[in-house]
Amino acid sequence: MYAYDEFDRAFLAERVAEFRDQVGRRLSGALSEDEFKPLRLMNGVYLQLHAYMLRIAIPYGTLNAAQLRRMAHVARVYDRGYGHFTTRQNIQFNWIKLEELPEAMASLAEVGVHGIQTSGNCIRNVTTDQWAAATPEECDDPRIWAEILRQYSTLHPEFTYLPRKFKIAITAAGHDRAAIKVHDVGLRLHRNEAGELGFEVLVGGGLGRTPFVGKSIRPFLPARELLSYIEAIMRVYNQYGRRDNIYKARIKILVHEIGAEEFSKAVEAEWAAIRDGALHLTDEAIAEIRDRFIYPSFETLENEPAALTEALKDSRFATWHRNSVQAHKVPGYSIVTISLKPVGAPPGDATADQMEVVADLAERYGFSEIRVGHEQNLCLPHVAQKDLPALWAALEAAGLATPNVNLVNDIIACPGLDYCALANARAIPVAQEIAKRFADLDRARGVGRLHINISGCINACGHHHVGHIGILGVEKNGQEFYQITLGGRADEHAQLGTLLGPAVSYEQVPGLVEDVVDTYMELRAGPHELFIDTVARLGVEPFKERVYAAH
Amino acid sequence: MAAPQQQKLKVNGPVAVTANRLTDGAVVWRTKAGGWSVELVDAAIVTTADAALALLAEAGKRDLDAVGPYVAPVTVDDQGTIGPGNLRERIRVAGPTFELPH
């Protein structure tokens, strides 16, 4: 965990006091809605269909137990007893009252949590791998660099009014769990042949109305040059990004229109002028950030202790272990994913009680650390293998041990028309119904890894373009319809899905998805061939023929 | 698709003016008396674009009670019972269409 200092605490307290004053002036009529709206948005407060929504940043998806417990408190006292974890590693409270928001924010600020820059045309929460500092795959802790970017970008005056919002993601592992190729800037941390740490820099990725996979503009940027190079990108975007048309304002449109090569040249020219300036990161500055990350004091343990071996004789535990537990870089420890996708429940939602259970378990078994993944699940990154049986039993009792991580009912879904003022169609009930079709987890395991992503509108908060099966809700003549795509993926081989065929009605979606899955089971080369690979091998046509013949 | 507030007004049936209450975001409906009510049954119902625009203009004069007023379709059955006119408004009136976590 990163340890915030007195500056951070004082800043948040001042910010809450400022917002309290703004809310007071709004309620008294001293501020109009037009004056107040940008102020509330800068603090993560949206007005949705039937209530205010507070979006809280979880920097690079890392939380401690005290912070999660405080979120449970806010959910219980100021909301309706639950929260929704998002595809940007944040949490949203859907029912907060404006008049109570300052108190809720003050409570969150006490544990270093806030909603600043979770809205507006600024640099948003920098996201990264939820397995950071735990996975043996990575070359460095990507959160160090995310924290450097957080400090640099927070309230940065030059980048507070960008043409449009700006999202950065970092991975330091070969397998990309942070979806860096569909972000405005994607950073792949790796070492060059000389062993030096640096970033491959991708720009212009994104989903939404006009989806693009990011283009690589620099194969290796020395890590210490991160800020100056990002600043050069931001300046080029700030100068040339369109402000006349909201639909063409993201950096992906600029990169697409002028080409990655031209964009890269502009960035390099800007960078040449500033690279040796104040933003050059010294070893001391990097070390200072690094030193503020407190890492667990791992015991010297061996892999597969006797307690684990014995527990694996229980088939239910063994099933969960195979699905939800991953290798850790330290012997005797594991990474545990906590599914927030119990069959039939809203994806990504956790009750206050469940948050408290996870906070307690993180304290007892996981060095007080919790992560949020963009797949809308939680993670305990550091659990001793000998503790896994007890952890599983406690998670099971809280309804948090569904062994469906990465399976067909581990569905990403945005809030959709059930909450969101922008949505055209529902997403959560569609996810629930699909999940129920595959409630038999033996069947889901037989299908294997399959990511279904659902968005309730073209803004694509549910990342439908990069779902193995993507589902986009649209509205036609007052009715909900859904477009289905196949073959999208968000990992290091990121690509956009291909449209399967005409949109289908709300009622038809679960059956159609089931038919797609059944078709895959018939067509796959064998159990080893994943859904995404079968689609890559055969294209969508065989699926289209079978599925639309049935509908 | 643009949000209802941004759409060009077309009135093909009964409509009402709706908004969110400033203090808590609750869904409210413009009443005949020129106030706001959380009950759809209290809403002023009009059937022409001119009447709807007039209702909307009146609603927008003061933004201390309700935020973001717009014209929303409603239904009125033979008994005069008023209901929300599309799925969006049904959800605004009745809440999410699934059981909330508890």
From TrEMBL, chain A:
Cellular component GO terms held in the UniProt record: sulfite reductase complex (NADPH)
Cofactor: [4Fe-4S] cluster; siroheme
Alphabetized UniProt keyword annotations: 4Fe-4S, Iron, Iron-sulfur, Metal-binding, Oxidoreductase
Domain Nitrite/Sulfite reductase ferredoxin-like intervals: 52-111, 344-398
Pfam families named among the record's database cross-references: NIR_SIR, NIR_SIR_ferr
Gene Ontology biological process terms from the UniProt entry: sulfate assimilation
Segments forming domain Nitrite/sulphite reductase 4Fe-4S: 119-272, 410-547
Keyword Protease among record annotations: no
Stored Gene3D superfamilies: Sulfite Reductase Hemoprotein, domain 1, Sulfite Reductase Hemoprotein,Domain 2
GO molecular function, one term: sulfite reductase (ferredoxin) activity
Protein name as it appears in the record: Sulfite reductase (NADPH) hemoprotein beta-component
Annotated organism of origin: Ancylobacter rudongensis
TrEMBL record, chain B:
Protein name as catalogued: DUF2849 domain-containing protein
InterPro entries: DUF2849
